[in-house]
What does this fold into?
Amino acid sequence: MTVLTPRATTADLVRGVVVAVLAVAQLVLSGLGGSGVVGEPVGDVARSYATPLLAANWAFAIWGPIYIGFLAYAVYQLLPGQRARTVHRRTGWWLAAAAVANPLWILTFGSREVFLAEILLIVLLVILALVFGRLSHEPAEGRLERIVLRGTVSVYTGWVSVAVALGTAATGVRIGLPGDGALADVAAIVVLLVVAVIATAVVNAGTAVVGYAAAVAWALVGVAAARPPVPVVVAAVVALVVVVTTTIRRVSRSVQPARLAWG
It folds into this structure.
């Protein structure tokens, strides 16, 4: 039986162009905001609301591959053979929304509107989680899609899921909660364990889990490397071990390890 490929419509072309334009805007605006050209550098603002859940500066280098991957996806989904595919119709506008929410939270955070920035960051996570879930419903068309679409989304979702936890801690300090001391350490430990539980659930339920788990693991190493109090370091390491071992176990036991690992 021949499977008919749907024809691309004007709406498909418009969606593809909008995604591509916003992918470029995301890169430019996030770079300007994150570096402090517009507003204050994100790192400086975060350190001014110091908590045990700050990540080491080098950990934020993960934004580079995320932005490059998003640009590659934007080009990929705009190709004539891709525009009409169901996967892009189901996720394209959501990823366009993600490309708006991301620079908005960065610019807002750099303006020290910390509470609003946290709301925007949560919105970004919800969007990415929705896309991540939708990509689990069908296998990738090939290796290129696994890399530029599913790989990008999985890494993006994993990193932002931990970034929300770090942002919540900073928001707590902004509204007057303690950023250090025993209470702050206990709160940080609880947050890290919750991150581990949620990440484990995602790994056990989703596909393209390697990118997601790798981003979460990267963030946890970044937290531990920032030299918080020893109990917080221990909690970060425990969370890291749980996430990594769960991922290895699930991929190795899967009947479709490639799809589970990469989408």
Remarks:
- Residues 10-262 form one domain.
